[in-house]
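Why do we care about 3D structure at all? Because function follows from shape, and shape follows, mostly, from sequence. That is the central idea of this module. The next example makes it concrete: a single protein chain, its amino acid sequence, and then its structure expressed as tokens.
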Amino acid sequence: MWHDVRLLNAITNVLLTIFVVIVLAGCFLWFAEKPFFLLKVIHVQEAEGKTLKHVNAFTVRGVALPRIKGNFFTVDLDAVREAFKAVPWVREATVRRKWPNGLEVSIEEHKPLGTWGEDGRLLSVKGDVFTANLAEAEEEVNLLKFYGPEGSEKEVVLRYEELKRGFATVSLEPVRLELSERYAWRTTLNNGVTVRFGREQGNTTMREQMKRLLAVYPRLAAQLKSGIRGIDLRYPNGLALKADTLVPDVGGQ
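And the structure:
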């Protein structure tokens, strides 16, 4: 072995390479630990096309900054992202390093739509449940009320948008939407009328029920001067009404 010049040269080159790598790594670590690279500037801005209404320096200092560890080179950007997502109102955060001692954080806030359940949590327009100051949300929007099994939030918001578009054609709007544990739907309109849809039998069940209701609602509202209190659409070919004055069931058109 010791007489094999080519092998000895190869071993020497490997050892030399390892030595150089160790020296360079040591130099980098020494360089990276210099105070010059301690994080001193964290610039928070709104994500492109978004506006920040609720995230401020106070909340960032109180919630996010204590969770950020390391310097420009060693800071974990994923950990920073999660630290900012823990700030009330923050839906998403994008983080990047800014030479030589800073971070740039782009924030997207939740946009509230209503409350979810009975525990004071908020529901966003994208179907995310989050915790924030309820009074701040009420200043921004008239909060609707939503209920449903855990995990159904996005489906409930999707259904709300469909119902909102449908009822807008008769100048009404849902202000409360409930999905029961048995997956039966019920909504309350801004005129106080409760509409029961029951359980969906297919992807088009509610659309068909809405079509049937909207076709007769203007005439019913005009005829029942005393006012409609409830509408039950859990019938295959018609609907039932609850009003201050009793009326017969209305068949399909």
